[in-house]
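Obj.: predict assembly geometry.
Materials: sequence records (below).
Method: joint structure prediction, all chains together.
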Amino acid sequence: MSEPIETQTTPSGKMIATMALVASICGVLIVGAFEGTQDAIAENKRIMLERAVFKVLPGAASVREYAATSTGIQPLAAGAALPEGGVKFYAAYDQAGVLKGVAAEAAGKGYADVVRVLYGYDAERQVIIGIGVVSMRETPGIGDKIITDQTFLKNFEALDVRVNAELSALANAVKVVKHGSKQNAWEIDAIAGATVTSKAVGRGINESAQKLMPLLVPHIAELKS
Amino acid sequence: MSLPNQADQGITFDTFMEGVWRQNPVFVMVLGMCPTLAVTVSAVNGLSMGVATMFVLVSSCLLVSLIRHLVPKEVRIATYIVIIATFVTLVDYLIQAASLALYEALGAFIQLIVVNCIILGRAEAHAAKNPPLPAMLNALGMGIGFTIGLLALGGVREILGAGQLFGVSLFGASFQPWVVMVLPPGGFFVLGGWLLLFAWWARRKEVRHGA
Amino acid sequence: MSMELRTSPHLVGDRSVERIMKHVVLSLLPICGFSVWQYGLSALALLLTVTATCLATERLFNRAAKQPSTLNDWSAVITGVLLALTLPPAFPLWMAVVAGFVAIAIGKALFGGLGSNVFNPALIGRAFVQAAFPVAITTWVPAFSAQRFSEFVPTTLTAPLMMPPDIVEWVKLQAVDAFTGATPLARWKFENVVASSHDLLTGVVTASAGETSAILILLCGAYLAARKFMDWRIPVAVLGSAALTAWLFQLYDPAHFPAPTFVLLSGGLMLGAVYMATDMATSPVTPLGVWIYGALIGVVTVMIRYFGGLTEGVMYAILLGNALTPLIDRYTQPRVFGTRQQGKKK
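Observations (raw structure tokens):
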């Protein structure tokens, strides 16, 4: 531009005052919205969690959150932070208040993104009795068979996750094997054509169970109440 | 694109219709493409995203218009962004309260409404220069236009990608889904198709009016 | 005596677009014939459907753009035939129609027709259906089944928009020996089984309709090259660089990586190198550029096969080569005689 534009500088005081005014209006709006929706959001989250847990542990009627650490297990208040080195899990009880099982989350790197699943664990038999997908972005029609493929889901009717004698790790690491070659109770038969996604699920479960089970098994009796 | 000076034109039919049709943000201005391409895998997602954006658009334009004489021009953009961010946070909470499933489906794109250039564009080009009523009408028009665009994309992608519309199966169980349609490339294909259709339609109208 | 006065050039070559295209189609006929002999009615229907769709789409866009018909330059026929040859033999016909339409409409017409397209149209069509129907495009059928000339494979006649039926039972009924339902490349990748070169050369392996016999494709390509209808340097560069890359990998770890012969003969590399990469509109024109282009395709193909999620990488390698063609051309421009090289001081 050839000629200088006439600029009228606004005094800083006015700028700050305006910004402060706008910021306080906005602050009030946000706090109001947060207060107003907080309960509904918490309720939604609880329902969603319960639905997911009930799916992998049929017969359960209520869910409690726990954290397992090297010093034992303790209940986790809603919204409380997980203690250092702890593993979060959910204990599910039936109508009579009897422990039905334990659910925990597992995550493994899939074809497109991390595949997160929730698995249900039967404390009596020390096996995984069901999985449900929490989130994934696998190719529709191929990777998402982990939700629909019945033969694949059969792997998780009694997947062996016993801990070893020293209670330091799983007796047998959960392993994904090629489609049609499952021989042991701790192996997962991969879906033909969706090996990467199957492996993500298997690896995730192995990682999670290796961490959780040694911490959980010695204290499982504390949950039975 | 240079926007015409839209200061104090009063309320005309075009105040509202501009955004819906002639300057449709998706099909004509091709603005806000990030949510447009990313969340429109189904009609419901498209509609929800459109409505969420419309809410932010109308509310922030109203507020911007109300305080338009107060705001010094040096800090106007910062002020607008604070206002827009506030309403986005509001929408974020509201959607979480309404449906967590929807919240997960829309993902980070709710928060990203903040940087949707349609909103800042409206605040700067229209709301800051007009009284509240026309500002809101104009924003509403833009919001509706954006929603129509998202719905058009989401509809086509859901029909081809899942054989459904609004979750209702159209072709029966043995329909073969076109996987590409729910993947990112499908968004580009469908958007390209709609742009082609709009450009062709506009050209035809021009030729007719010229003749 | 009348004298005709004309400006140069006075010698007009006989190598018009139509003539080249016609010869390419001619050279493709043996490959089509072999494919039909192997897979019977289904392959024949696939070839005819895709070609007819390509022609119809070309005509449609000619009309829409109010241009004279470009059907008689034979290019749409080539696109159709090549596209059909890269699809599985029992690909559902309605999906084949989608592939043909996308190939011509998105791959060619929207760019402005023959010569203006950036990518090989046939590969655009295939890439689209690969992304849209990942299951159907990896469903293979055995060659030489007994009733191949009297009945269609069930998947071929799938109703439009519907999912193709499961053909596992049907394949069992054919009782063809050693049919695995996986291509040699997939078997290598997931099961570490390397098919024999003899099988790969003669084409008795699981594959797309037209990529089975390496010998036949090479012979047809040699004919085109000998008649100078094709730039022989492109296939040589593609195959050479692929073989060299594979050889280096095998040198590094023979237990993991297959022999160069397997890499050359399996999958669509032959068909791609001879017929797809050589498309005149989408390959470089400078002599040096042609070598760079071919070598790039060869290396990328092997890289995708070895390290990618897919079993076959020829299609994406060629599409990438197409995308880089303008850049390659630009950087390999020969110096105009008498001018100085850019950047050199006087």
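Conclusions so far: Chain B touches chain C at residues 163, 171, 174-176, 178-181, 183, 185, 189 (CB under 8 Å).
To do: check interface contacts against the pulldown list.
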